[in-house]
Amino acid sequence: MITKRLIRQLPRRYSTISFISNEDRHIFESEKLTKRENSDAIPDKPNFSTIDKVHHEIVNPEEVADLVTKLNTNDVLISILSKEKYLYGDKDYVIRSINKSYETPVVFPFSSILLGWKNVYNKQIKNLKEIEPVTHMFPPVEDKYLNLLKGAASFEDFFRKSRAFKNSILIKEGKVQPSEIKSLFTVESACNLVLSTIDRPEALEEFLTFVAPKVQSFTFHGLKELLTSVTSLCEEFPVSASTINELAVRIIELHPRMLRALESDIKDKLARSVIDINSDLATILIKDLVSASVCPSEKTVEKYYASYKFIDPVTTLKELSFLKPVLHYRKMSDVAFNLVLHTVSNVNELIKLVTLLKRTPDMLNNKQNELYSKLREMTTSQLITTQFLRFLSARNVRLNKKLRERAIKDYNNDSDVITAINKISRV
C-alpha cells in the first residue's frame, strides 16, 4: 500500500513528440539510389526451362470425350511401364475433353495418379436400368359434359359452354373458395375428357393445335398430366413432330422444371416424337434419362443415331459422349456402329471398339472388313496389322475370303504371311 501511494505522488513526465523531419540523420542506402538504379539492382528471374517439368496437365476423367473405351489393368501396366508414361505407351494418343480443346497427349507420371484417374474415368459407364412403363388412365367424367362435347361444334365451343377456361381463371385468381374447387369443371377436366375420346390421329392433331396456345390457363400439375396423356396417345395415334413439339416447348418455357417432373417413360417417348424437328430437346431428355441411370428405349436411341448429322470425328465424339453408357448397355446396331467407327482415330480405340463388339458376335464377324479398312487408314505397320488379325481370331472371328485376300496383298504376297493368315482364318 505504501509503495502504491509513493508511486502516485511521483511527478509525471511526458516525452515530447517532434514532427521535425530527420532525413539527414536516418536514411536507408537504397533510398539514396535513383529509380533506375533500384530497378537495375533487382536480379533477373531464374530460367527453369531446362528442368524437367513435374506438373502435367491431365484431362478431367469425368469430361473425357469417348464412346468405346473402358480401361483395364493391362492398359495401366503398359502405360506405367512405358518410357514416357503416355496412355497405352502411345505418344500419339490424344485424350480429348468435352469442354476444352486438348490436342496434346496426356502424361501420367505416377501409377497412383493413373489408377485413380482410371477408376473415375470408368465410372462414365453407368449401370443402367430399363424404363418402367407408365400406365395412364383418364379420370371418370359426368355424362352431361360428355354429351356437351358430342353436341359441340368445335373444341372452342365445348370449352366455352362447359365454362372450363372461365372456372380455371377464377381458381388461379383466388376467387373461388377452396371447398368449391373440386366441384368445378376446369381446363384439366375438359382436356381429360377430350383426350379420352380421341380415336384417330387427325382428331389428336386438331386438339393439340387448339390447346397449345392456351397452356397458361393450366396449373403445373395439369400441364404435366396433359403432356403425359398426349405423349402416350401419340404412340397410338401419331401426329406431326411439329405439333407435339410446339406443345412441349410452350409448356417447358412456362415451367422449365417440367422436364424433371416427367416420368422416364414419358421422357423417352417425347424425345422419340420430337427428334426429327427438335434434336436439342430430344438430347436434353435423353441426357436426363442417362443421368438418372435409365437407358432410353432401343427405338428412341436408334432414331437418335439415324437423325444425327455427322460433322467431323472430334465434334461427333464430343456431342455423343453422353451416350457412352448406352453403347455399353445395349447391343450395337448397324447405324450406331457406322457412327462410332467414324469417331475412331487411333488403333487403341479400334481395339476397344472390337472388344465392345464381343457382346454382338454376329456384328463383329459381319463388320470385319470395315474394321480392317479403318485399321489400314490409321497405320500400315505390319506388326500392328498382324496383332489386329490375331485379336480378331482370339475373339472367335473367322476371317472371310475378302479380308484374307486383302491382308495377303498388303503383305506383298509373302508366303510365310499367307500360311499364318490361313492358319488364323481356320481357328
H-E string:
HHHHHHHHHHHHHHHHHHHHHHHHH
Shape: flat
Helix content: 55-70%
**Radius of gyration, whole Å:** 36 Å
Structural write-up:
The longest helix has 17 residues, at 220-236. The chain is an all-alpha fold and 427 residues long. Helix 11 packs across helix 14. The chain contains 25 helices and no strands. Among the domains are: 61-122, no CATH class; 129-294.
Features:
single chain; 427 residues; mainly alpha; 25 helices; 56% helix; flat
Summarize the structure.
This protein has 427 residues and is mainly α. The protein has helices at 2-9, 35-41, 73-81, 111-122, 143-151, 155-161, 164-172, 178-181, 187-197, 201-211, 220-236, 241-254, 258-261, 264-274, 279-291, 298-307, 313-320, 324-329, 334-343, 347-356, 361-366, 368-378, 382-394, 401-410, 415-425.
Topology:
Elements: H1 2-9, H2 35-41, H3 73-81, H4 111-122, H5 143-151, H6 155-161, H7 164-172, H8 178-181, H9 187-197, H10 201-211, H11 220-236, H12 241-254, H13 258-261, H14 264-274, H15 279-291, H16 298-307, H17 313-320, H18 324-329, H19 334-343, H20 347-356, H21 361-366, H22 368-378, H23 382-394, H24 401-410, H25 415-425
Helix pairs in contact: 7-9, 9-11, 11-12, 11-14, 14-15, 14-16, 22-23
